[in-house]
Amino acid sequence: MDGYPLKRSRLLTAVCLIVTLVIGVLVAVAGANETECNIVSNLQNLARKTFGLQVFRIVTYLGDFYMWVIFTSIYSIYAYIKSRKHLDTAIELAIFLIITTALTYSTKMVFARPRPSCSGISAYDDDVISSFSYPSGHVSRAAGAFAILSRGSRTKESLAIMAISLVSLSRIILGAHYLTDVVGGIFLSLAAQRLASLSFPLLKCKIKKRWLSGRHRHFNLSSNPTPRTFSTLFAHAITKLNKPRSIIHWHEST
User: Fold this and answer.
1) Which residue among 31, 48, 103, 251 is least crowded, i.e. fewest CB within 10 A of its CB?
2) What number of other Cβ atoms are within 10 A of residue 150's Cβ?
3) CA distance 133 to 107
4) What is the Cα–Cα distance from 241 to 219, expressed in whole angstroms?
5) Arch. (CATH architecture) of 4-211
6) pLDDT tens-digit profile of 137-173?
7) What local confidence, expressed as pLDDT, does residue 163 receive?
8) Domain ranges of the chain
9) Would you put residue 152 in left (φ > 0), alpha (ψ -120 to 50) or beta?
10) pLDDT for residue 165
11) Does residue 139 contact residue 171 with C-beta atoms inside 8 Å?
12) 3-state SS track over the chain
């Protein structure tokens, strides 16, 4: 039973990746259809009549790659210096951004779906010329990043859902993506988030072992310079610490 949560997490990761690939195959075969074009057109017209497009041009930066790189860097530095309890979250967020960026770029290259080019809609995003449409990178980054940052708080989770929904809407309203691009981005984000959650404990354990190994090498082990195993090294260091002060090579200033 101890391995059930791990198996379940791996299964859900595989399911999310498969769904992302299935949607990609369908959109690559079918191409843009009238229904998806109408969705983009109707949302654009609704935005013009209500909030205006400029609002969504600002909101869409919540999924911008450079914004998240800068935020993660600042958050990691803050967590390391001032608030160690948030350091795990900062590291997992960084791992997630690496994974989701790699998966998003690879998927875009595989399916190479063109950006929306339906009659009656306009593109209001600078990225639409330089990259492909499926899946949405903004949505995949925002969905997973906000989910990681909002853990443990109902209020934060509600705000995260609102932010993800707004980013998703903004990508369609700005003519950068179809609805299926947004859905694919969400499933890809779920897979990347779970991959980050699975890989983080392994990375953390490896870093901890290297840190402990470095600390043990700092002790003077001249009496046994070549311990054979990690456990032998640790036991030898503890033995040295338990000896009287006169036996340990203390370097005290006179």
Assistant:
1) 251
2) 18
3) 10
4) 9
5) Up-down Bundle (1.20)
6) 999 999 999 999 998 889 999 999 999 999 999 999 9
7) 96
8) 4-211, 219-254
9) left
10) 95
11) yes
12) CCCHHHHHHHHHHHHHHHHHHHHHHHHHHHCCCHHHHHHHHHHHHHHHHCCCHHHHHHHHHHHCHHHHHHHHHHHHHHHHHCCHHHHHHHHHHHHHHHHHHHHHHHHHHHHCCCCCCCCCCCCCCHHHCCCCCCCCHHHHHHHHHHHHHCCCCHHHHHHHHHHHHHHHHHHHHCCCCCHHHHHHHHHHHHHHHHHHHHHHHHHHHHHHHHHHHHHHHHCCCCCCCCCCCHHHHHHHHHHHHHCCCCCCCCCCCC
Whether 194 contacts 8, CB under 8 Å: no
Distance, in Å, from the CA atom of 180 to the CA atom of 115, rounded to the nearest integer, reads 12
Residue in the structure block whose two tokens are 């997630």: 96
Query: Count of CB atoms within 10 A of residue 124's CB?
Result: 18
The one-letter code for the residue type at 46 is L
Task: Express as a percent the part of the chain with pLDDT over 90.
Answer: 44
